[in-house]
Amino acid sequence: MFCSLAHSQQTAQNLFGQHHTALYQIKIIELESGNKSSIGSGFQIDTSGNVVTNYHVVSEYVYNPDKFRIEYLAHDGSQGQLQLVDIDVINDLALVRKVVLSEQESAFPIAQSLPLQGSDIYSLGNPHDLGMIVVPGTFNGLKKSSFYQRIHFTGSINPGMSGGPVVNKLGEVMGVNVATAGNQIGFLIPLEKIQALLKSQDAQVLKSEQFKPRIQTQLLANQNRLFSLLNNQTWETSELGDAMIPSKITDFISCWGGSNASDKEALYLSVENRCQLDEQIYLHRGLRTGGLEIEFEWLDGKTLGEHRFYNFYSQSITGAGAGNNATKTDVTNFRCQQDKVTNINGVTNKTVLCLRAYKEFEQLYDVLFVAATLDHSQQGLISHYTLSGVSKESALVFTQKFMDTIVWQ
Predict the structure, then answer these.
(1) Residues 6+ apart with CB under 8 A from 225
(2) Residue 81 maps to which CATH number?
(3) What's the whole-model pTM score?
(4) pLDDT of residue 230
(5) % of the chain beyond a pLDDT of 70
(6) Nearest CA among 98, 113, 57 for reference residue 201
């Protein structure tokens, strides 16, 4: 163990010595004050001055190019301005380029393949604005059951390291720092996504008016891929009270259950099943999109009496909210439509379908749906979902499938 640790430390030192000239702190400078608003890391991938970082590191500039600029800080203290070349908002990547090149530019080599599971890998970055460091860790393969591919990395990824490279023992980039779950659990953007971004190496710098249309194109393509997969898949069902409900839609949507059956003072029985897409797409500091949440609750209030149960049941469907924290800057108010609907299995529901539009991105909406069955006087099933960043067409197809999967036992 001692020899292995010593070898890992020596490798980390060698890697830093070889590549520190191509490693940068990325700074977002607020023009009014002239001070940095946020920081991250980045790495150069060719001698033309192209630098890879995270999209979320430069997102303030993308949303407000008239209020911010992007700069880099090199190992020797030199600084310079960066221009935005391309964005991959789905995979949280951005390609930026130096405005002025130095006499001698250096770059990280890009790996041709991922290492074997269990291999030593090394994360580089600038944590907490303390200077560049190397963090040894372990490659644990791609995260299982994930719609957005991520590498599971055993090692510390701290604030400020976002956008830094993760390299194999040869110093070749095979991932990019993106997130941490704490306790030595980190996540990296994998090699395949980096290679796709590098196809823009020779592209012209994006104009500021191209930033958001580029994001919109990517968001629409991504939601089409997601909901095409969801709507064309057979949903597994399971019992919840007297109903059969969707319990496993796909592998990358995780579900939990719970009830108040152990509460001896409860006046009614509540049994819940909740499912969620764990990953979302970062747009800016106050807004994430691409989320999906589903919840079913079976309520049995035979001890309450019909009138009390009706009042309780009616109140239970009013607490649903959106699945993200979008503000009036980003979205319009919800517009809702109420209906009474009987599905193909004869289950009758009172439904409320609400949509709000994204102000910056045409054709994209947040969707809120709540349904309450009307077939029993002192029992009922409440069905609820929220979607963020979806087209109307995808939402309506999803709603139809969501409702038609419910059946009484």
Answers:
(1) none
(2) 2.40.10.120
(3) 0.91
(4) 94
(5) 95
(6) 98
